[in-house]
């Protein structure tokens, strides 16, 4: 009889066409049918209800094999772990089993080795192995961009809420509610739900001043059925809102947020009819009181300054350098002077002199606290670019600070950008305008936009030229990315009739010294007059500036529209409008909360008004 069975099996396997790639453990496969003819059991299939389960939770197993006939029932041997999380296997029918977990095991990944175990009983099992996880943590929901969005994303767009793990959710509108100061008449009109993303679409209007929008979700569970009940996701909704007028209208100023939260605006150029200390170039400073929403006068600088630069030192003091101006009187001159503001003493004290006067220069505070002063322009025509790079050694006493010339740029420049690269220990000096004087007359100079990048090594105190070629530009912007690369965008490519804004952004890698093209800006912006604020997790908003609108670059206009850039979606996109289309003002960036304030500038005349981009 056994010989007849073997002959029939051989005939069956030879006569049947077995398609390559078929699952040999499928009960309907020729192999399984052959095993059936031999009176062997077919392939045992098992389907598990989930691979994630709560402590003390349940996984259901459905199978085509009756394990109730066996004295030991369905056995699920857990391998690779000290203690099995399975407490009991209960048959609910001949082909359905309830697998209960021990409540004392609250986490861990486990593997059930089915193949080797059942092979001893001459059973083929599909799957051969099953992995599952004990999960006691409910899903975490957050805004894709962190915790902040621009108001335009509520007015005309959508909001993405992401989960840190797969969710199981009905996704009914009744399961979502909105509240908070930013809500106004806003409602959720529709949703698109995927395994880890909830996209909310809106109707109605948010509060035009922004604020906090709290999105509450009910019934959201993960695949292990963990739930927080009602999950509340707070969202900071950033918007432009009118701020108070400064006491003195100004352009070409500098704004800085102090460590104690006070916000300071200093220097600049006043309106023609305003003279302070005998001149329209200002030594005047004022503080913005965000609680009272008003400006109060601060201490005057030692020097009147415009087109200067100022940075916050590591100890919280303010260091102002160069520009055009002077002390009391009607005469303006190029400045080599420096000065330090002590926020505790509330006084300005003169510091060391630089080797050469400069304006439109840039400064970087180094990790040891010293300040690198790079480039700039001479104050009067014929305009000459400054190549000298100086290192100011910072001490507790401004009288003991010193300035050291550490080298010269290969391309003297001003109106450039620079940023410190933590990964390489270098200051990256990017683009700018080079102007060379060739005679004594006021027009005897030739300006040009630069395509070069230079590097200052803080360890060797040496300058070198990068091999990477920038798309030539000046009055542009720079932003350090989380991965250590540098985003470069905006600016102008010429000062002549063929001047055009640079729409193409680029990304420079300081580690590999390479540069690549990135997405385009929506608007070309220049003159060091746009304002870049961070908000949310990885977003920037760009506002204001000048855009040249004609083919020959002879006509321009200031820009009302704003645009944002997001590191997560890696592109520029249209956002809300600023209240004033201004340029040549200054800004204060709110480091603690994101956003900031735009102050002064020009729209024809010099402005005294301000506006905030914030959620407060």
Automatic annotation (TrEMBL):
It comes from the Bacteria. Keywords: Kelch repeat, Repeat. Pfam families: Kelch_1. This is Kelch-like protein.
């Amino acid at each position: 009889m056994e010989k007849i069975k073997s002959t029939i099996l051989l005939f069956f396997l030879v006569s049947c066409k077995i398609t390559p790639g078929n699952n040999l453990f499928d009960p309907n496969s020729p192999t399984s049918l052959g095993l059936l003819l031999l009176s062997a059991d077919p392939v045992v299939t098992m389907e598990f209800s989930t691979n994630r389960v709560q402590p003390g939770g349940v996984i259901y197993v459905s199978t085509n094999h009756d394990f109730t006939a066996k004295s030991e029932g369905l056995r699920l041997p857990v391998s690779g772990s000290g203690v099995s999380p399975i407490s009991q296997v209960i048959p609910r029918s001949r082909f359905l089993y309830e697998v209960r977990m021990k409540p004392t095991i609250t986490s861990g990944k486990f593997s059930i080795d089915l193949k080797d175990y059942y092979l001893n009983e001459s059973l083929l099992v599909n799957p051969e192995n099953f992995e599952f996880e004990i999960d006691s943590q409910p899903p975490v929901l957050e805004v894709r961009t962190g915790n902040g969005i621009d108001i335009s994303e509520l007015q005309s767009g959508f909001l993405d809420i992401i989960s840190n793990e797969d969710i199981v959710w009905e996704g009914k509108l009744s399961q979502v509610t909105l509240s908070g100061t930013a809500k106004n008449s806003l409602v959720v009109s529709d949703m698109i739900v995927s395994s880890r993303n909830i996209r909310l679409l809106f109707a109605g209007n948010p509060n035009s001043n922004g604020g906090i929008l709290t999105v509450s979700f009910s019934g959201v569970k993960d695949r292990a059925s963990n739930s927080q009940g009602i999950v509340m996701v707070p969202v900071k909704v950033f918007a432009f809102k009118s701020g108070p007028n400064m006491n003195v209208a100004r352009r070409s100023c500098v704004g800085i947020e102090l460590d104690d939260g006070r916000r300071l605006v200093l220097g600049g150029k006043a309106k023609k009819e305003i003279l302070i200390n005998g001149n329209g170039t200002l030594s005047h400073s004022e503080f913005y009181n965000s609680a009272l929403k008003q400006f109060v006068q601060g201490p005057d600088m030692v020097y009147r300054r415009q087109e200067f630069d100022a940075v916050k030192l590591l100890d919280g003091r303010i260091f102002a350098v160069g520009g055009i101006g002077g002390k009391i009187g009607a005469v303006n001159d190029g400045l080599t002077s420096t000065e330090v503001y002590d926020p505790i003493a509330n006084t300005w004290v003169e510091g060391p002199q630089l080797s050469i006067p400069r304006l439109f220069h840039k400064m970087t505070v180094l990790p040891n606290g010293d300040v690198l002063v790079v480039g700039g322009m001479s104050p009067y025509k014929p305009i000459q670019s400054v190549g000298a790079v100086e290192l100011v050694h910072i001490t507790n006493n401004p009288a003991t600070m010193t300035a050291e010339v550490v080298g010269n740029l290969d391309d003297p420049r001003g109106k450039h950008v620079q940023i410190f690269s933590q990964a390489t220990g270098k200051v990256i000096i990017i683009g700018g305008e080079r102007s060379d004087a060739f005679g004594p007359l006021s027009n005897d100079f030739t300006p040009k936009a630069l395509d070069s990048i230079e590097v200052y090594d803080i360890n060797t105190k040496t300058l070198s030229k990068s091999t990477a070629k920038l798309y030539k530009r000046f009055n542009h912007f720079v932003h350090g990315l989380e991965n250590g690369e540098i985003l470069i965008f905006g600016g102008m490519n010429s000062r002549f009739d063929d001047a055009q804004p640079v729409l193409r952004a680029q990304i420079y890698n300081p580690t590999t010294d390479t540069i690549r093209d990135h997405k385009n800006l929506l608007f070309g912006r220049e003159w060091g007059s746009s304002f870049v604020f961070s908000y949310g997790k990885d977003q920037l908003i760009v506002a204001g500036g000048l855009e040249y609108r004609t083919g020959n670059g002879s006509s321009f206009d200031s820009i009302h529209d704003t645009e944002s850039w997001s590191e997560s979606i890696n592109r520029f996109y249209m956002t809300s409008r600023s209240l004033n289309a201004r340029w040549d003002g200054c800004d204060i960036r709110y480091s603690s909360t994101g956003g900031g304030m735009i102050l002064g500038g020009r729209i024809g005349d010099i402005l005294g008004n301000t506006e905030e981009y914030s959620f407060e």
